[in-house]
From TrEMBL, chain A:
GO terms for molecular function: RNA binding. InterPro entries: NOL7_C. This is U3 small nucleolar RNA-associated protein NOL7 C-terminal domain-containing protein. It comes from the Eukaryota. It comes from Triplophysa rosa.
TrEMBL record, chain B:
This is Cirhin. SUPFAM superfamilies: Quinoprotein alcohol dehydrogenase-like, WD40 repeat-like. One of its GO terms (biological process) is maturation of SSU-rRNA from tricistronic rRNA transcript (SSU-rRNA, 5.8S rRNA, LSU-rRNA). GO terms for molecular function: RNA binding. It holds the Pfam family WD40.
C-alpha cells in the first residue's frame, strides 16, 4: 500500500512541469482571435445576404403593383397626342384600355376577377341565397313533409 | 224548358298562387292580399270580400310583406326593392331599392310618418313617408343576423325586431338596441339549427309577443327584457301573428294549417289581473298559413293552399247573417276565359301566356243528363307567350275568332289570327294608336269591327279594326269624372251600346253611334260582378257581389218592371246566402225571358215569366218538380232553376249554336299540384 502511494507521489513529484513554448501559446491566441473575427464576418455576410434578399422581394412586389413599363411609357406619350383628331384619340385610348385590362388581369391574383357592373350578379345571388334560406327552413331537411296527394 | 248541349271542359289548367301577406285597412275595410307571384288583390271586406282591384305581378318577383300607410299601400320583396302601388289605376307606382339586400319585412308606424324595413344584411332601415314618394332617412344600429320581422310600438318610439335566435328592441330615436332577448332553440329540432322568429307584435303596454320556428308563442316584457310566458302551440313553425285593434285578441297561424287564438282575459272572474290565455283553434287550411289578419269581426287567413279563409268570430258578430258564415275565396272574381262564339274557340289566360283551343265536336241526340260520344277531340291551336316579365292583366278573343288582344301593366298587344283548318298563323299588329298603351279591361264589339279598351280615369278608347290594321276612333269619357279603373266592359248585340263598371260602383252606358255617354245607372252599394245586354230588348242585366240583381232599361233610363218586382219580393234567402259571386250573365236566343247565370258551384236559368219564389218555398226544387205530374208542376215551379251537376266552375260561356261551354277546374286537381304540407298524424292511419 505504501508503494502505491509512493509511486503516485513519485509520478506527480518526479515529473517536470510541461513546457509550453511561448510561440505556441501566441499562435493559439492569435488563432482564436482570428476565428472570432471570421465568425463575425460570416455572420455579417449572412445578415447582408438576408437583407439583400428581402430588399429584392420588396422590389418585386412593388413592381407587380405597378403597371408594366410599356404601358407607363404610353401614358407618358398620351398627353402629347391630345391635340390630334378625336378618332385617333379614342382608338388609342381603347388600345390603352385593352392593354391595361390585360395587364391588370395578368397582375391580379387568382382569386380576383374583372366583372361588369351591368351584369349585376351580386343582387341576384343575394336574392337566391335568401330564397334558398326560406325554402330550406320550410321545406328542407328537418321538416316533416308529405305529398299533397296524401292529405 | 232549358235544354242545352254542354261542352264540359277541363283542359284549362288554372293554378292559383299561394298567399304570402295580408294587410288590413281598418277605416276603409279593405284587405290587401299579396301572392307569391307578386300580384296584389284588394278585397272589400264589407262587400262579401269581392276582389275589387287586382294588380298583376311579374316574373321572378315575389312579395314578402305588405303595409298600409294611411291610404297608400307599400310592399317589399327579396329583390331588395320597396314598391308603392297606384290603387286608382291598379299598377305599381314606383319602386325604390333599399340597398340592404333582400327585404324580409316592411311595416309602417301608427302615426303614418315612417316606414321601417328589415333587411338581410341586418339593418333596420327607416324611410320617411313624404307626400309623393318615400325617402331614406337612416339605419338603426346594424345587427349581425338577418331581420325577419318588425313591429312598431304604438307610440312610435320603439321597434321590436325578430331575428335569428333573438329579439332585439330598438330605441328609434337613437338607433341603439335597448334589449336583446334570446329565444330558445326547439327541443325536437336539432340544436344546431337556429330558431327563426318569424313574427313579432308589440303591444302598447310593452308586451312583445313572438312566434318562432320552434312552434312557440312567447310573451316578453320590454321593461326588463325577460320572458313572461311561453306557449307551445304546434310542433312545426308559427309563421304569422296578428293582434286585434283593441289588443285583447291575438291569432297565430302555423305551418300545420291551423290558427290559434289567444285572448287577454282575467283568469279569475271579476279580478283585474289579465293574462293571455289560449282559447280557440280554427282548422280551415290544409297547407302552411303564411299570413293572418284579425279584422273587427273575423279572422282572415291565407297560405300555401291559395284559399283566403274568412272565419267570423261569433262572439263579435251581433246578428246571424251571411256575414257570420265561414267563407273561402278560391277562384278569382274576374274572368280568365273568353270565347269566340262564332268560331268555337276558347282563349285561356295564364299569368305569362295565353292558350287558344278549339272545342271538340260530338254528334247525336241523347236524353238530358247523359254524355254524347266525342267524334273530334278539342285541340290546342296556339300558345302565345308574353314578351317581357310582366304578367297578363286581361285578354280577349273576338267573337269571329280573328283577333286576339291582351294587356299587361305597361303595354297592349293586338294580333290577327288566321285559322285555315289545320294551319294557324298569327301576325302581330305593330302600329297601334298611341292611346292604346295599357288596358284594365278589353272588349270586342259583337261584329268584331271595334275593340274597346278601358284606360285611365274610367275612360274607354274605341278603335276600329279592319284588314289593314287598327285605327283610333274615339275616347268615351264618363260624365262623373271618376278616376277609378274599370273592371267590367260589355257591348250590346246590335253594336249600339257599351256599358262599363268601375271600382267606384258606377255603371256608365255609352251610345256608340254618337260616341257619347248616354246615362248612368243609380249607384248601388255593392260592386257589379257580372253584367250583359239583352240581345233584343237592350236591357242591362247586372248582378252584384252581394247577390242582388237589377235590370235597367236603356231606352227608358230606368229599372224595368221585373227588376222592381224582384226588389219588392226580395230574393230567396238561399240565393242570398251563396258565398261566391256570379261571374257571367248570358241569354237564351230561343227564349227571350231566360237569363243564364253561374257562380263557382251552380248554373242557374232564371225564367222571368215565372213567379219569383217566396222565402218559405223550397228553392232547389228541380228534383221535386220532376216527380210531380205535369199539371201540378206549373203550380209549384218558380223562376230560379238551379243545376248543380258541374264542379268548381271557372266560367260558363255560350256558343253560336246555343250550346254551353262549362270550364271546370276541380279542386282536387289544384290540390295535387300544391307544395307539400306538413305530415300530420291522423287517427287510424
Amino acid at each position: 500500500m505504501s508503494e502505491l502511494i509512493q509511486t503516485q507521489f513519485e509520478s506527480s513529484e518526479d515529473e517536470l512541469p510541461e513546457e509550453v513554448a511561448f510561440d505556441e501559446s501566441k499562435s493559439a491566441a492569435l488563432k482564436s482571435v482570428k476565428d472570432a473575427l471570421e465568425s463575425d464576418k460570416r455572420e455579417k455576410l449572412l445578415l447582408k445576404e438576408k437583407r439583400r434578399k428581402r430588399q429584392q422581394l420588396f422590389q418585386e412586389q412593388k413592381r407587380k403593383k405597378c403597371l408594366p413599363e410599356d404601358v407607363l411609357e404610353e401614358f407618358d406619350t398620351l398627353p402629347q397626342k391630345q391635340s390630334k383628331a378625336s378618332d385617333n384619340n379614342k382608338d388609342d385610348e381603347e388600345t390603352v384600355n385593352e392593354s391595361e385590362a390585360e395587364a391588370i388581369s395578368k397582375s391580379l391574383q387568382d382569386s380576383y376577377s374583372v366583372m361588369r357592373l351591368k351584369d349585376n350578379s351580386s343582387a341576384r345571388s343575394l336574392q337566391q341565397h335568401a330564397s334558398d334560406f326560406i325554402q330550406s327552413r320550410l321545406y328542407g331537411p328537418g321538416t316533416q313533409r308529405t305529398t299533397s296527394k296524401k292529405t | 224548358m232549358g235544354e242545352f248541349k254542354v261542352h264540359q271542359v277541363r283542359f284549362f289548367e288554372y293554378m292559383p298562387t299561394g298567399i304570402r301577406a295580408l294587410a288590413f285597412h281598418a277605416q276603409n275595410e279593405k284587405m290587401a292580399v299579396a301572392r307569391m307571384d307578386g300580384s296584389v288583390e284588394i278585397c272589400d271586406c264589407s262587400d262579401n270580400f269581392f276582389q275589387e282591384k287586382v294588380i298583376p305581378g311579374r316574373e321572378q318577383c315575389g312579395i314578402e310583406a305588405l303595409s298600409w300607410v294611411g291610404d297608400r299601400l307599400f310592399s317589399a320583396g327579396l329583390n331588395g326593392e320597396i314598391a308603392e302601388y297606384d290603387l286608382t289605376n291598379q299598377k305599381v307606382k314606383y319602386t325604390i331599392d333599399a340597398y340592404g339586400g333582400p327585404i324580409w319585412t316592411i311595416t309602417g308606424n301608427k302615426q303614418g310618418t315612417h316606414l321601417a324595413v328589415g333587411c338581410e344584411d341586418g339593418n333596420v332601415k327607416l324611410f320617411e313617408v313624404n307626400e309623393d314618394k318615400i325617402q331614406f332617412e337612416r339605419n338603426l344600429n346594424r345587427q349581425k343576423g338577418r331581420i325577419i320581422s318588425l313591429s312598431w310600438h304604438p307610440s312610435g318610439s320603439k321597434i321590436a325586431a325578430g331575428m335569428m335566435d333573438m329579439i332585439q328592441v330598438f330605441n328609434v330615436e337613437t338607433g341603439h338596441s335597448i334589449h336583446r332577448m334570446l329565444v330558445d332553440r326547439g327541443l325536437r329540432t336539432s340544436r344546431s339549427e337556429e330558431c327563426v322568429v318569424w313574427s313579432v307584435v308589440y303591444l302598447s303596454d310593452g308586451t312583445i309577443i313572438s312566434g318562432d320556428s320552434a312552434g312557440m308563442v312567447k310573451m316578453w316584457d320590454d321593461c326588463t327584457g325577460t320572458l313572461i310566458k311561453s306557449h307551445n302551440v304546434t310542433k312545426s313553425d308559427v309563421l304569422a301573428l296578428s293582434v286585434s285593434q283593441n289588443e285583447d285578441s291575438l291569432v297565430a297561424g302555423t305551418s300545420e294549417g291551423f290558427v290559434v287564438q289567444f285572448q287577454f282575459v282575467s283568469v279569475v272572474l271579476e279580478k283585474d289581473e289579465k293574462e293571455w290565455v289560449r282559447t280557440r283553434t280554427f282548422k280551415n287550411h290544409t297547407h302552411d298559413i303564411r299570413a293572418v289578419a284579425e279584422i273587427t269581426t273575423a279572422v282572415v287567413s291565407g297560405g300555401m293552399d291559395t284559399q283566403l279563409v274568412v272565419r267570423p268570430l261569433l262572439d263579435k258578430v251581433e246578428v246571424r247573417s251571411t256575414a257570420s258564415a265561414l267563407r273561402k275565396i278560391l277562384f278569382p272574381h274576374r274572368r280568365l276565359v273568353s270565347c269566340a262564339k262564332k268560331a268555337g274557340l276558347m282563349l285561356f289566360q295564364y299569368p305569362s301566356h295565353l292558350e287558344l283551343w278549339r272545342l271538340g265536336e260530338s254528334e247525336g241526340q241523347a236524353i238530358p243528363g247523359s254524355s254524347l260520344p266525342i267524334i273530334k277531340k278539342p285541340e290546342k291551336l296556339l300558345l302565345l307567350k308574353v314578351k317581357g316579365e310582366e304578367h297578363i292583366r286581361c285578354s280577349i278573343v273576338s267573337p269571329c275568332g280573328e283577333w286576339i288582344a291582351y294587356s299587361t301593366a305597361s303595354s297592349l298587344r293586338l294580333y290577327r289570327l288566321n285559322c285555315d283548318n289545320n294551319n294557324v298563323s298569327i301576325t302581330k299588329i305593330s302600329k297601334l294608336p298611341k292611346v292604346l298603351s295599357s288596358a284594365n279591361q278589353l272588349c270586342f264589339s259583337p261584329d268584331s269591327s271595334h275593340l274597346f279598351s278601358a284606360s285611365i280615369e274610367s275612360s274607354v278608347h274605341m278603335v276600329s279594326l279592319n284588314q289593314l290594321g287598327c285605327k283610333y276612333v274615339a275616347t268615351l269619357k264618363p260624365k262623373s269624372g271618376s278616376k277609378q279603373a274599370i273592371h267590367l266592359l260589355t257591348a250590346s248585340e246590335d253594336g249600339k251600346w257599351l256599358a262599363s263598371a268601375n271600382s267606384d260602383h258606377e255603371v256608365q252606358v255609352y251610345n256608340l253611334q254618337k260616341r257619347k255617354a248616354h246615362c248612368t245607372v243609380p249607384i248601388y252599394s255593392s260592386a257589379v260582378s257580372a253584367m250583359a245586354f239583352h240581345p233584343t230588348t237592350n236591357c242591362l242585366f247586372m248582378v252584384h257581389a252581394d247577390q242582388q240583381m237589377f235590370e235597367f232599361s236603356i231606352e227608358q233610363k230606368q229599372y224595368t218592371d221585373w227588376s222592381r218586382s224582384v226588389q219588392r219580393n226580395k230574393l230567396h234567402h238561399i240565393w242570398l246566402k251563396r258565398d261566391t259571386p256570379v261571374t257571367n250573365v248570358m241569354f237564351n236566343p230561343k227564349n227571350p225571358s231566360h237569363v243564364i247565370l253561374h257562380d263557382m258551384y251552380m248554373l242557374c236559368v232564371i225564367d222571368k215569366s215565372l213567379p219569383l219564389p217566396e222565402n218559405s218555398t223550397q228553392f232547389y226544387n228541380q228534383l221535386t218538380l220532376k216527380s210531380l205530374p205535369a199539371e201540378e208542376r206549373k203550380f209549384y215551379s218558380h223562376a230560379f232553376k238551379i243545376c248543380k251537376t258541374f264542379r268548381e266552375i271557372l266560367c260558363v260561356e255560350q256558343m253560336l249554336d246555343q250550346s254551353l261551354v262549362v270550364v271546370e277546374r276541380p279542386l282536387m286537381d289544384i290540390t295535387t299540384q300544391l307544395p307539400a304540407p306538413i305530415k300530420q298524424k291522423k287517427f287510424a292511419t
